[in-house]
Design a protein that fits this description.
This protein is an alpha/beta fold. Helix content is 20%, strand content 28%. The protein contains seven helices and 13 strands. Strands 1, 2, 3, 4, 10, 11, 12 and 13 form an eight-stranded mixed β-sheet that branches. The chain starts with 7 loop residues before the first helix and ends in a 17-residue tail after the last strand.
Length: 250
Amino acid sequence: MSKTVPTAAEAVADIAPGSSLAVGGFGLSGIPDVLIQALAEQGADDLEVFSNNCGVDGIGLGILLDLGRIRRVTASYVGENKEFARQYLSGELEVELTPQGTLAERLRAGGSGIPAFYTPAGVGTPVAQGGLPWRYDQDGTVLVASPPKEVREFHGRRYVLEEGIVADFALVHAKVGDTDGNLVFNKATMNFNPLTAMAGRICVAQVEELVEPGEIDPAQVHLPGIYVQRIVHTGPQTKHIEKRTVREDA
């Protein structure tokens, strides 16, 4: 049965308030921008987001952030969004910062049915010891702090226990997809999109090019369609640049 959905609006129509979302992309590369815009227009709020970062002001997840639709974010990098910083420091947004590789493995683990795993990343730091500010009060005091995590020693080295991530929905972007949901990612869009897709109970993929089953060489498939429940053809993606640095002509 074809997994195609006619429009992005229909693809995200059943994302309810309070849902958890795993969102692909790295910076502004490979973000599911059309699905995010459709979700902004749909109106769901009180969302919990798992993503490497939260877009920039007015682009990507920054759109949902500007609308006050996001309640909590688990991410590894948040340095390009002024509104994100304002909401976090004023107590409007709960933020769990996690090492980038750990976040990637948490998504992969959740999508693979692995509830938790041990990693050396973060041992001996507040990542493992707890105390990282997740939510501030309006007066700047820490209202919610991260709890300590289990640490065990294996073969003379200490490791911290991290939990896998399973989200209600995953939103991803791919270069090519077929109607069975098999996806091919282009260059940097491989960052987080395949892992994000795995972590969603329902994965919605926007694709620049939609083809029929068999048109993608099986050896070229980056993510098999078993992980994808809905696919929508959105056409070529507009490329955004997070931070433009130019020099003057000599």
